[in-house]
Amino acid sequence: MINLNNYYMKDLKKGIYQHYKGAEYEFLQIAESENDKEALVIYRALKDNRLWARPLSQWVEELEYKGKKVNRFKFIKESEEEGYEARYKRALADYQNLLKNSVKEKQEFIKFALNDFLQEILPVYDHLKMSLHSLPEIEKENAWVKGVEYVLKQFKTVLNDKGVKEIITVGEKFDHNLMDAIEGEGETVVTEIMPGYTLNGRVIRAAKVKVSSGEDKNNKNN
């Protein structure tokens, strides 16, 4: 019977071996067959990571191949085993990355958690602005109007502090990422039909606008 300890310590090194037909494998360990106690080599194919088992007697034998005596498996080099320190550092790095990703996901959730609430509150803000915009000039000096203007100012400050910005439209070049053109043709926004907003740089409601080209104004003037 083959002395496993002798082979393991002397002739069989853990490492990369080349099969006589060219494929490369990593020798992992020696096992023992449960049925007949035969020594088995457990090894891994580098090509596809598939695990194999072969009798030790076959692993170490010589054969004749193309008129020459060759080893069935020829030792090439030692495996690049990963030490405990390297594994610890990698595990620590993975854990730190996990924490960073968790914090980032939490921040993203908080940042955009206001979206549903804003969809309900922004129409109220818009209606307040519209109510003041449509007032006759003579009424704009009334005390109650000044009170509403102050409330609107506070409203805008709170929204800005939460990352909500109103999309600037009139006089700007039409931007399909921020606006929906409801009427007209051209590249310049001439009228804002409904305000649009972004939350921390992300569009939560596109502005509804009317667009026109410079030719439209010229035709009207003519």
Structural account:
By secondary structure, the protein is α+β, with helices and mostly antiparallel strands. The chain has 3 domains: 4-78, SH3 type barrels (Roll); 83-113; 115-221, Nucleotide Exchange Factor Grpe, Chain A, domain 2. Helix content is 39%, strand content 31%. The protein has 6 helices and 13 strands. The chain has helices spanning 4-11, 56-59, 84-112, 115-133, 143-161, 214-221; strands at residues 15-19, 24-32, 39-45, 51-55, 62-65, 68-71, 73-78, 164-166, 179-183, 188-194, 197-199, 202-205, 207-212. Strands 4-3-2-1-7 form a 5-stranded antiparallel sheet. A 3-stranded antiparallel sheet has the order 8-11-12. Mean pLDDT is 82; it is low at 1-10.
Unreliable stretches covering 5 or more consecutive residues: 1-10
Morphology = elongated
Superfamily (CATH H level) name of the largest domain? Head domain of nucleotide exchange factor GrpE
CATH class assignment of the largest domain: Mainly Beta
Strand fraction: 25-35%
Helix percentage: 25-40%
Descriptors:
222 residues; alpha+beta; SH3 type barrels; Nucleotide Exchange Factor Grpe, Chain A, domain 2; 3-stranded antiparallel sheet; 6 helices; 39% helix
Topology:
Elements (H helix, E strand, L loop, with lengths): L3 H8 L3 E5 L4 E9 L6 E7 L5 E5 H4 L2 E4 L2 E4 L1 E6 L5 H29 L2 H19 L9 H19 L2 E3 L12 E5 L4 E7 L2 E3 L2 E4 L1 E6 L1 H8 L1
Parallel strand pairs: 9-13
Antiparallel strand pairs: 1-2, 1-7, 2-3, 3-4, 5-6, 8-11, 10-13, 11-12
Helix pairs in contact: 4-5
